[in-house]
UniProtKB/TrEMBL annotation:
The lineage of its organism: Eukaryota, Viridiplantae, Streptophyta, Embryophyta, Tracheophyta. It catalyses: a uridine in tRNA + S-adenosyl-L-methionine = a 3-[(3S)-3-amino-3-carboxypropyl]uridine in tRNA + S-methyl-5'-thioadenosine + H(+). Residues 34-255 form the DTW domain. This is tRNA-uridine aminocarboxypropyltransferase. It comes from Vanilla planifolia. Keywords: S-adenosyl-L-methionine, Transferase, tRNA processing. It comes from the Eukaryota. InterPro entries: DTW, DTWD2/TAPT. The keyword S-adenosyl-L-methionine applies. Residues 1-28 are annotated as: Disordered.
Length: 272
């Protein structure tokens, strides 16, 4: 189980190295910028390296976190929290793709065929639409004996919200056989806007709805309840400390902008 998807030291190479040949937009300048990345550490440009903010050693957990990340996410999202998350956790496996299916992960295939009494498989994704259903993780933990959840596997999806929803939907035929959908609290409230960087110290970019969390925050909140009582809050806090530091770091490079306004109908101004 442990050797699967072991996090390569330079895991981010895969997302940057598979550039299409003949990519006409790539010029000398972008090649130089890519070369000046923190190759040995966080994978970010050297100028925004966050390695000093990360724990000196990966944090051991009883939970095995499996992240399915969209092929474009790490390439296009300059403030992705996944690199930091992977550096922080000892048991964090990465899968690159648009859906989970038989053959995508030996670990999941094995648990699907031979369920382990102590390793339930959970996938974390909030209820957004009325047709979706996810159980509050805290409630699930309180109703599940410790022996039946001592070494859980937690699957998370890392992508934009639109892509993540598509990835979950495409993975459901496989996941439904052996995994349980969970969420943090009541999940998302599509009727309310999410917080922005200027309103919260753990928000890197504005989320579409209230309750939407970044990948690292979602995993931090989940580990708080999944890990043994004496360890959970500490692990959560260590991950959130990294996120807060990233947000503070990012805020230095951000300039507050006024909400955009657009004219919707005659005389009616709508704030976006
Ligand atoms: Zn770095």
């Amino acid at each position: 189980m442990e050797e699967e998807e072991a996090l390569p030291n330079m895991w981010f190479l895969s997302s940057d190295d598979d550039n299409d040949e003949g990519d006409k937009e790539e010029d000398c300048q972008s090649r130089r910028q890519r070369r000046s990345k923190c190759w040995e550490g966080c994978g970010r440009p050297v100028a925004t390296c966050i390695c000093p903010l990360l724990p000196p050693c990966p944090i051991p957990t009883s939970t095995h976190v499996v992240v399915l990340h969209h092929p474009q996410e790490l390439r296009t999202n300059k403030i992705a929290t996944l690199p930091a998350l992977c550096r922080c956790l000892e048991r964090c496996s990465l899968l690159c793709g648009r859906r989970l299916h038989p053959g995508a992960s030996p670990l999941l295939d094995s648990l699907s065929a031979f369920p382990s009494p102590s390793s339930p498989v959970l996938f974390l994704f909030p209820t957004i639409g009325p047709s979706e259903s996810a159980i509050d993780l805290k409630r699930w933990v309180s109703h599940t004996p410790y022996a039946s959840r001592a070494e859980p596997v937690l699957i998370v999806f890392d992508a934009t919200w639109r892509y993540a929803r598509e990835m979950v939907a495409a993975s459901l035929p496989y996941l439904e056989r052996f995994a349980l959908q969970v969420q943090i609290g009541d999940g998302c409230d599509a009727g309310m806007e999410g917080a922005s960087t200027f309103e919260s110290d753990v928000v890197l970019r504005k989320e579409p709805w209230k309750g939407c969390l970044s990948t690292i925050e979602a995993v931090a909140r989940a580990l708080r309840v999944l890990e043994p009582e004496e360890r959970g809050p500490e692990i959560e806090e260590r991950l959130l400390a990294v996120l807060r530091a990233m947000v503070a770091f990012q805020a230095v490079h951000l300039t507050p902008v006024k909400p955009r306004t657009k004219l919707k109908k005659k005389g009616k101004v709508v704030r976006e």
